[in-house]
Every structure is written in structure tokens, then in C-alpha cells.
């Protein structure tokens, strides 16, 4: 077993249970432009990505619009206010056992950093709702705002490594609920990549990215690492 010193966990669908509100909002702002994409299509083509990119990729894959750039920009302009409204009405929570698993990992000397395709304002509001604090409950937070190139590029994981002063990616495990999380980990040359079934994508979808493990949820990391 590789020695893992840092676990990088995705937020929505992995550590944060928000009932797919982000992707439902992506679906809404796209369909408000006159399309009829399904939530399943949004999850397939947009899960885990920075949200402007997610909207763009869903439009390309699932519609026949000829003006993707302008349509995506217009839909994305509506996304943040729509998401803010949705979050104000939403009971954000974590999945059972996640907080205890993060505590166990940190107690064993393994750093835990959350990363996300959200912007920092949205991600920070989620942490506030969960009453999680950097330095107390997690070792760091890396958002789409913190890097130039988002997933599946490795930049957010490299940023997490920098926060924790870890130079060897073989000592890093990346876990998430979408293929884009797994590809991000592979592109960062992480020692282990893990797909979890608590969020956006099913086992068959996750298998296409060839993770080292597919787990029901983050709690299963305890069996791998502790």
C-alpha cells in the first residue's frame, strides 16, 4: 500500500449532500434558454467541472445550438443568482460518517483538503452551513477561483499539495463522485484515485476513468488508509 499523506476530497456529492442542487440549477439555466436537457445529461457531461465549462459542455453535447459561446455566457450569468436563491432554501448537510472519517484521517497524520468546481464564495458558504472551519475540521480549501485551469487539469490538486507542503503526488489520494475527479487525480499523478457512489455518477460511469477503487462513500477510505 502506498503511503498517503494528503487526501483531496471533492465537495458536492462526495463530502457535501446538497441533493444535486448545483446541477439542477445548471439544468434550469440551460432549459430557461429554450432547451430540454435532462438532469442525467447534465450529470454525465458537466459533473465536477467549473460551472461555466459545465454549461458549455452540456450545450455542446446535448443541444443543437449554433451559438454555444453566447448561450453559455448568458446561462452562466443567471447561474449564480439562481444558485444563491436555491441555497437559501436548502438544508445543506454532510453524508453520514464523513466528518468522523475526516477526523480519523487527520488524527492519523493525513491532511484533508477539499477541492471543488464551485467559486470560493459558494464553497465558503457551504462550509459555513456545515460549521466546518479550515484549520479545525479540514486543512485547506481549493476552489475554481484559485487556479487558471480547472478540472480535469491537475492545478487544484497541486495547489492543495502546496498548502500542505507535499511535493510527491504519489503521497496524495484524490476522491470524488465523478469521472472528472478521477481524471484530475490521474493528471496530477496521484498515488491513488477513488470514485464514490454518493453523488453524481454511477459505478459504470466511474469505471470509464479507471479509478483504483470505487467505494459507496468517503467512509470507505478508512478501510483503505487506516
Report a brief summary of the structure.
This protein is of the alpha/beta class and 226 residues long.
Characterise the protein shown here.
The protein is built from 10 helices and 8 strands. With 226 residues, it is an alpha/beta fold. It has 2 domains: 6-18 and 92-225, HAD superfamily/HAD-like (Rossmann fold); 21-88, DNA polymerase, domain 1, CATH 1.10.150. The chain has a 6-stranded parallel sheet. A two-stranded antiparallel ribbon has the order 2-3. Helix 9 links the parallel strand 7 (192-196) and strand 8 (213-215).
What are the main properties of this structure?
single chain; 226 residues; alpha/beta; Rossmann fold; DNA polymerase, domain 1; 2 domains; 6-stranded parallel sheet; two-stranded antiparallel ribbon; 10 helices; 8 strands; globular
Please specify the SSE layout and strand pairing.
Layout: E1 6-10, E2 16-17, H1 21-31, H2 39-46, H3 51-62, H4 68-88, E3 93-94, H5 98-107, E4 111-115, H6 120-130, E5 140-142, H7 155-163, E6 172-176, H8 179-187, E7 192-196, H9 203-207, E8 213-215, H10 221-225
Parallel strand pairs: 1-4, 1-6, 4-5, 6-7, 7-8
Antiparallel strand pairs: 2-3
